[in-house]
Amino acid sequence: MASSPFDWIDEQARLRERAGLVRTLRPRPAESGLLDLAGNDYLGLARHPEVTEGAAAAAHRWGGGATGSRLVSGSTELHAELERELAAFCGFESALVLSSGYAANLAAVTALAPHGSLIVSDAGNHASLIDGCRLARGTTQVVPHTDPDAVRKALGTHQGPAVVVTDSVFSVDGDATPLPQLADVCREFGAGLLVDDAHGLGVLGEGGRGALHAAGLAGAPGAVATVTLSKSLGSQGGAVLGPAKVIDHLVNAARTLIFDTGLAPAAAGAALAALRVLRREPERATRVRAVASGLHELLTGEGLSAVRPDAAVVSVRAPSPEAAVRWAADCRGAGLAVGCFRPPSVPDGVSRLRLTARADLSDAQVADAVRVISRTAP
Question: Which of 90, 104, 120, 359 has CA 20 to 30 A from 135's CA?
Fold first, then answer.
């Protein structure tokens, strides 16, 4: 029998299986009895009646899809309204909505790092930032995790445009980057600062306005933020926030904006409704941070190795990829859904359970979750 051009995949599959790194899709039902500490619905807004009604009303008015790219037919008055309110809430001059947070990061990095420029990228950055660096025409230098001195050293080797790229809160361990120190280094060298605030929006800053707002950097001429609409805002999509001239440049230069279909109206409507709920109920941001701190305190009290959270993510280390998979499965069997992060998703090669705090979790639910995690620990 003739060989298949994809026979090489079989060997890749065997290697993944031996390393304990096989991944599978697990469709979830509309209703589940599991206590969810795996998803990213930090503020508990994905099923909020105002948010679901916002999605439904937008679909009824504008249709099921955007019908084209943002530059053709995919920009509606709803998209513009979301951009205005998002920029105003976070403290930036302008905003641009894209089809995902991933697309927003690709847009920002590639458009702001032309040929001859230097990108200084944190070693712990999200895959979407890493891919943006790979696609950009500038040269990328990866520096040690959350190390402003390493950033200063990298910038000192370059003459010309430069941009420092970092997560505000890193998705694996939930630790935060030292934004004020990074901003000082950027100002010293005239470099731009591009921050992925996916895990900061809705959690950090006054009323959940984000990590850059908390650091006094919102609206700064050299600062640009990217956000996702799929975590705290319970919807889908992404956005870039920054000076108006930066946003105008992205409209003309960002390929994931120019060549991708615009965000579906239902997602824009849901995100706008969620943003308005957050503006009205800023205590949700305070509560999610308290839940995260409570999880960490109880987990470490049980003798588990948990990283102190700077936002809503709590990371618990596992002894091996196989042990992490078993641990997560045992938690699920006991009624608790948790995330399971293994290489290559973790930059240091250490597998973890990844827990996400939610503003709508009660203290009793937090305590129940910790009991399950502790009882099933390998």
Answer: 90
